[in-house]
Design goal:
eight-stranded mixed beta sheet, alpha/beta, 10 strands, single chain, 28% strand
């Protein structure tokens, strides 16, 4: 069975974006050491159009062969005229407002997202990268098998949280910690079931 992995950036106080949804300030912390780690360990999480610029080779996928993203994650690519931002992966976009997919390589999910994710997890293949915001994560929180939290050395005070799932205790097991000279820390947790 495939794993659903929520790989997300956060401030030290748990916010993935400013109150308006912009997380571009995290780019200030992409120093060479940390960026080198991300491009070698998680190359599939980088949009296809960035591969040449970053020198990313995705000829052999490491972790993921599918992505589930929300409309908010998909929109910036659409605004740039990119209809298939992760062409190297199976692409699924959760949206109730897009009626017709702008690209045949992108499947829209407008119904029960958790049910569709369970179907995708039952297929053979590598893992599924959950790329999106607090609302998307809330819809599938009980389907998430692994959390990869990229914590950046910044305190924001407010913003969009990692999830809006509401308070329910969900126990996790720490399975990895990697710290970098620039203050970034990547922690990996698996779900205790």
């Amino acid at each position: 069975m495939r794993k659903l992995t929520y790989l997300i950036a956060t401030s030290v106080d748990g916010f993935m974006a400013d109150p308006d949804g912009d997380g571009d300030f995290f780019n200030d912390y992409l120093d060479p050491e940390y960026l080198g780690y991300l491009t070698s360990e998680y190359p599939e999480t980088l949009p296809t159009h960035a591969h040449d610029t970053l020198g990313v080779d995705i000829s052999t996928a490491r972790h993921f062969d599918a992505i589930v993203m929300g409309r908010g994650t998909y929109d910036p690519a659409l605004k740039m005229g990119i209809t298939s931002p992760y062409a190297h992966l199976e692409q699924y976009v959760a949206s109730r407002s897009i009626a017709v997919t702008p690209d045949p390589a992108v499947e829209l999910i407008s119904g029960d997202l958790a049910a569709r994710v369970r179907e995708l997890k039952a297929r053979d293949g590598l893992g599924i990268y959950l790329c999106g915001g607090a609302d998307l994560a809330a819809q599938v929180v009980d389907e998430i098998d692994e959390f990869v939290i990229k914590t950046y050395p910044v305190l924001t005070g407010s913003g969009i949280p990692l999830t809006r799932a509401g308070f329910v205790r969900r126990d996790l097991e720490l399975t990895g910690v990697k710290a970098f000279g620039g203050g970034q820390v990547v922690t990996t947790y698996t779900r205790r079931r």
